[in-house]
Write a structure and sequence with these properties.
Bound molecules: aspartic acid, magnesium ion
Structural class: alpha/beta
Strand order of the largest sheet: 3-5-2-1-8-10-11-9
Radius of gyration: 25 Å
Largest sheet: 8 strands, mixed
Amino acid sequence: MIVMKFGGTSVEDTRAIATAAEIVLSRIEERPVVVVSAMAGVTDSLLAMARAAASGRLGEALRVLRGLRRRHLAALYSPADESADVARQHVVARLDSLQDILRGVAALGELTPRTTDHILGTGELLSSRIVSAAFAALGLDAALVDARECIVTDATHTNAVPLFDWTTERLRRRLPPLLAGRQVPVMAGYIAATIDGVPTTLGRGGSDFSAAIVGAALNAKRIEIWTDVEGMMTTDPRLYPQAQRIEVIGFDEASELAYFGAKVLHPATLIPAVEKNIPIHVLNSRNPESAGTCIRARAPRSRTTFRAIAAKPGMKVVNIKSPRKLGANGFLRAVFESFERHGCAADLVSTSEVSVSVTLSSAHGIDPLLADLNKLGEVEAEDGKAIVCLVGKDIRGRVGIAASVFDTLAAANINVHMISQGASEINIGFVIEECDVPEAVRKLHQRFFEPEKQRPAPTLRAVRGGLRMPRCGPAGAAVEVG
Ligand code: ASP
Ligand code: MG
């Protein structure tokens, strides 16, 4: 059997759902289990209305709810059909009950995590109902399976942790008989329940997690994550349009990439499947013929030196110089304790005997952290930096790769502020000025991904693409490009 997970944009309206049905039909011989997200943007709207109600803006919450009601009713497939009528009643009842809950939240002026889960789970309850009814109307023998009866979690509301033994047992009891009867189980992603049946959710983006849990429990041959992009790319196409689709990538490589800015999916959610060595395919429901990207526990060697280049702008570099009185060990410990106290996560770190440099997202307000660090030594913080990270595990043990990376940058006259290469030798990361990112990515992509003949003639503006990236002014000062 296989698992096919459809993300929000792949079930956003009747057309998308009909396309999903066709895609499922094309795999019917492989006995698919379908997992669905809420329709695109719905979970965000639900969260917004829950918060509005809790802070006394019931009118606003109900207005958003009316919008959701219209969208979901419009997404119901052919309302004239009898099964669609049943689905319609369920959808209406669910939305009515949500309205009652919102009134309750507003009356109490309180939104507990447990209630939040109740509200947020509505998106997937609705979409799974609508999708299974549409599949049935389109001729698939779809069977709606209640995820809350199969995925068992602890009671950490909004970020619940699956209890795998219970979950596996229930999935194995519930799904195989349906598959044996040639039915197509349709299940909501993201939602679950405690052993006592209290609804929980698996954390934002949790439908991928649901798909991985189902795939692992049933030893799926493959898990397909259907989304609206071609898969993972060798770099952000908005930065450099010649970016190419990655065919196969290792799980550890995909994790590094996600951390440094590639946002297709959150690899941590795939762990149950990766541990069982189940391949995960990221596919585009707007272009189902494309082969997408396959994520595997161990990917075969790459044809190129690296798998991908990720760039993360909006970084700040903090340098702390040690006054030497603490000794190197005590100094580092004190520095990282400060970061922890202020809830600041460091991305790249490089140290020497006398100083340590750390990158942080500029979005963080870090004045309290800086005040703290000032007690340890001399502190400088600079904005307008970016991390660029080349990922690929085939560089392990190969000589001269770092040299050619930094040669390429030097040839482009790009100054490097910080360098880091982990002991796992899976990535080479460095910090440059934000305004140098498009040029750095272009030069590195050409150097490592494009054979000579395929390189486009250089143009000045093409590289800036759709991303707003500041341009270097005369003295290296950043100038916003309009
Ligand atoms: N609908 C949920 C969210 O937006 C889960 C998911 O789509 O994966 O976070
Ligand atoms: Mg997602």
